[in-house]
Structure formats: C-alpha cells, structure tokens
Write a structure and sequence with these properties.
By secondary structure, the chain is mostly beta strands. It contains 3 helices and 5 strands.
C-alpha cells in the first residue's frame, strides 16, 4: 500500500523534516531515532494536507495537525488510526484507518 496522495486520495501527509528545517525555532520534531522506533499504541502528531470541494465546485487545500495512534509496521511504513476529527471535512473522522506514515512525517 502506497502513501496517500492528495490527487487520488484527497489528503496526504506533509514532510515534517522539511517543516522543521524551515521553522527550527517554532516547529519541534522528535529525533530521527525516536521516529524510527515507534511501537503499536504510540501517538504521533502529523501534518495533514486535505482537499475539499466547496458547493460552487472550487477546490481548497487545508492543513491540519492531527493525532494518529500507531498500530504496527508493514513494508517499511507505520500504520495508524486517526484520533481526532479535522475541522475542514467530515469525510475523515476519528477512527479513520489505515494511515501509512514514515519517519519523515
């Protein structure tokens, strides 16, 4: 299973390493070793980029930070479940599975 992409899935995860490098004084990112050793039940905060379509047909992309609980590792990616609801859509809700993430998220 591939990582989600906004074009086909309507959402994707931002690369937190890029964000941390661009904003070192305001964006904290756990050390790589910690991000590479997650266990089932660990909770992580991820940056979601979510596409919505307004009633007039215009598309918007929203960015929200949300919590995900890891469930395990599969093919080099962590699997997880969304723990909260995004503000911008009701298409994704707490319990949404399976979110694939890497150490860079």
């Amino acid at each position: 299973m591939a990582l989600a992409q906004i074009e086909g899935d309507g959402w994707e995860l931002d690369d937190a390493e890029v964000v941390a490098k661009a904003h070192p004084s305001t964006f904290w990112l756990p050390e790589r070793e910690r991000r590479e050793s997650l266990r089932p039940g660990d909770t992580v905060k991820l940056i979601f980029r979510i596409r919505t379509v307004a009633e007039d047909g215009n598309q918007e992309v929203h960015v929200e930070r949300m919590w995900v609980t890891t469930e395990g590792l599969e093919e080099g990616s962590y699997l997880g479940t969304l723990e909260n609801n995004p503000l911008c859509t009701s298409d994704m809700v707490a319990g949404f599975r399976v979110i694939r993430l890497h150490r860079l998220h």
